[in-house]
User: What shape does this take?
Amino acid sequence: MAEKTDSDSRKLLRRLRDTLAEEGEGQERLDNITHLIADSMGTDVCSIYLLRDADTLELCATEGLNPESVHQTRLRIGEGLVGRVAREASPMNTGDATAERGFRYMPETGEENFTSFLGVPIQRLGETLGVLVVQSRDGREHSEDEVYALEVVAMVLAEMAELGAFVGEGEALAAPHQRQILFRGGVGQEGAAIGHVLLHEPRVVVTNPVADDPVVENKRLHDAMDTLRGHVDDMLSVAMGTAGEEHMKVLEAYRMFANSRGWVRRMEEDIERGLSAEAAVEKEQSAVRARMGRVPDPYLRERLHDLDDLSNRLLRILTGQGGTGEAGSVENPILVARNIGPGELLDYGRDLKGVVLEEGSVGSHAAIVARALAIPLVIHAERITAEALNGDQIIVDGDQGLVHLRPEETVAHAFRDKMAMQAKAQERYSSIRSKPARTRDGVTIGLHMNAGLMADLPSLEGSGAEGVGLFRTELQFLTRSTVPRRGDLAALYGRVMDAAKGRKVVFRTLDIGSDKVLPYMKRVDEPNPALGWRAIRVGLDKPGVMRMQLQALIRGAAGRPLAVMFPFVAQFEEFKEARGLLLEQIERERALGHVLPEGVEIGAMLETPSLAFAPRQFFELADFISIGGNDLKQFFFAADRENELVRRRYDTLNVSFLTFLEQIVARCAETGTTLSFCGEDAGRPIEALCFAAIGLRTLSMRPASIGPVKHLLRRVDLAEARAVIDTARASGAQSVRPAVMDWLARQT
Ligand code: PEP
Ligand code: MG
Assistant: This one.
């Protein structure tokens, strides 16, 4: 076969485009395409295999093989040469197919006559949709140029499949973005929701993969590259001086790619072949994504990620598509994103029903906002942004870390039933809303709620919480590009207290640092951020922001009682210093003639085991102590709360942990120090019951947990529960959970 020139390739693409533009059913189009390719490449055979389901390829059209085998011949991914092309997502070119590893003869197709084989994956943005094959009798091996030309054709086919050119041809062709997919991710925030996908960055749709004039397309590409370079330079100058080393490294990599001749040259070649500028970007992006899946080295994978991100930006510039989604555009929106910043997430407002991220972590800013918005969050849902389309039905099961995309009706139905049952239970809880959480043997447990946004406050009424046991103050700092002003903070804190209508609000000072970096804070790269420079450590070393926040709290109180607690105190001295800072600010405010709070309670969060062993004087000086169980547990078991591999490894009701908590209860009892527990575990009914049984009298939790926790507490005899726990402990059990569950099951 003669060397094909670029204009041959362009001619083929143009004929392909015209064929696709004709009216007709999907099958007819596919038949025309195989005919067209075989004809213009001078091969005996051209076949299209498409994915029928995640593991099966089906012969969907052929020119040259036995027509009877269409829709009959099926292969598993990895099976035969075609299956191998799909699995490896890279071309296979041989003059002697029978000699190749994995060759599998399929008698029904009559392919024994064809020794030459060239197969290329049909893929869009790294997602394999099928395989395009040409075969011949003459034993030729195809030139690099021909391989490339066929790849370009496959790219256009993938693009057309995306646009629905083959829809109507059965499951195989409808495969992309139609079938149900289950994602197993991690729990970012518990809860459940059903709704519709709202993509944070909607997929760019390329409607014109084939272009007539390469000169025009080249100019478009170069103009877009210029704009992209400008964007990268802007990002670099904004980040200079404030971003950490990691962030700067990423931006430097962006700049390097944006100036990479190799990348541009490959796209120019694609354009020469007849692709439009955007299709050329996508073709190279697909190759990058395919490589991403194969590269084991994490550093290289990250760099490929960067290039992928840059390609997205380039596509948006070229197509003018982009911007972020709008919550109002779909019903019951569930946001799907690769990752998202806290400000962006808050911008979507309270309409969001849930969030699904490809990346993210339990302690990420997005997770903090999701927690504040009380919506389920699933993290590490790999590849969901490639699979989900705006408006797709989606179920977020934040309790299990599962996401059902385009669920079958039976699944959706079962899920709706489950949610209806939960709603019914919530209704049941509303009947006990104004009743105390008093156990059968007459012990009353104070139930408070955790909050972080002004918008959380209405839940005080609805949930029946006695007050706010933990007001996380990070959000107002995380969602801005500069340090919030004292006056604004004071006004906000004042409004929070107004909304609480005299109920107590415990404000926790800024818990920030290490992984929770403020956009305007100079980042310090730390080898072990969870054990690093965070919370009170930052506040004491650089007290400017903490002083300002304390002043804002005093002013916000405007003569009312004020309760402040300091996070992550590890030793007495830190508490003394922080407390001293607050007292200093009170004196300062007094000197300035401002109204002082009616009384100030100063507490510490007990989040590191060391504080439990602090001198007695610490317990005497602290007005109250709140156990931050999320952190305390991670340090007690040395198991990172953000690491999916270990975070559920140790049960909160593990005997060692419960005994440790009990010792804290005892130490506080000795000095008469008020003690509460405000980690996530307080909102889990069984855990809450056990905490109450070992002597905790105040718990602070998500508003939605108050009903279930109260419901259980009101049903039990605490002394009996205590006896069950003690017996389990004495038996050598690792966790008291089985015994407590068993006992509860026997209750009426
Ligand atoms: C905790 O650690 O339990 C806690 C309440 O604080 P945060 O989850 O904000 O770290
Ligand atoms: Mg904490």
Remarks:
- Residues 92 and 526 are 45 Å apart (CA to CA).
- The chain is about 45% helix and 15% strand.
- Residues 169-175 have pLDDT under 50 and may be disordered.
- The radius of gyration is 31 Å.
